[in-house]
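Subject: Sanity check before I submit

Could someone independently write out the structure tokens for this chain? I want to compare against mine line by line before I put it in a report. The sequence has 382 residues.
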Amino acid sequence: MKKDQSPKKENVTLSIEYKKPKLFWRIVLTILLLFIISILISSVVTYRKVKKYRDQFLQGAAISLDSFEQTVNTVANDLATLAENPDQAIKEKNLLILGADQVEGRDDGALLTDTMLLLQLDLVNNQIQSVALPRDLYHPDYQTKINALYYYGLERNQDNPLAFPAQAISELTGIRIDHTLLIEIAALENLIDLVDGVTIEIKEGFTDPLFPRKGVDVSVETDPNLLYETVVFTEGEETMTGERALKYMRSRKSGDDQGTDLARGQRQQQVLEALVKKISDPNFLLTEPEKVGQLYRFYLDNFDQSLSVTEVARILFSWLINHQHDPEVIAPSFVTYSIAVYPDSEEGLIVNPPLWQTQQQWLYMIRDLDKFQASLQNFFNN
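---
Independent answer below. Compare away.
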């Protein structure tokens, strides 16, 4: 009998040896873990920063979160509709800016608008075009200087006093006016101070020895030293407070080229441009949430009824739509226009007639209405 020569069966034990990851993969896993942790931390920090900004903004604006969210939702819905219909994007807006002031002690209590600016927001050509209208410009249809139009608007319709000056200025200039914004001088001073002043390049220095002192009752006080003060502006760059900027805007008794209403209008345009640049500065908008909130409150109190927040958002969004294919679009440029005076310029559109012809009133009269309107329309159209 043969012996069984088959191989003997051996018990085999399957063992799996655990090997630690190589150093490279350990480093990769560690970096990935740290990256995830950093994202989580960043998200928490970002949320806290956003919440802090929001809370400070709401505090500055003196509004509740619910009220602000309602406004945001309204704006968002409106812009969503505009995004679906980009052909409805706004191309231009014409604004009439009125700066009103009341001289203390005047018997008639007239609130006159000694600052009058026509602005066109050209959202296609990326420009803000500005024309300063002389306060003493005569409106022949209503037989008054244009700085009194708002006062007569109050008499005609106290519920909507801006309608009359808008209508009258549109008739005089031939320019369509979409919105009229009124700001009182004291409020403008506060606005400039709110943004920590404006920087102005003074192109030509001047001295005004007869600038009216603030808070002096002209119906009682007769001493010239108490009625007036001397203000001096030196050529060069100056960062101005609200009070200083208003003096620069309003001075008109320097006795030289800077003492004219036209030079005054140019200085008003300068201050407006500097203020817009300051308010739209990204560094200011991102680092001063409470002041941004105060600006929002200022807008609600002064302009919202004439130009709503929703409409402002539509204007800004339309600007983006109009330039969506322009990767290098920058902030709009300011373009100003000065109305030439005859005989200083042979092409002068307005003239300052002798006082004996105007019953001792200092005023400017339009020489040729058709040419005057054509000149303004040509400026805005081009």
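---
OP: Matches mine. For the report I'm noting this point. The CA atoms of residues 82 and 88 lie 7 Å apart.
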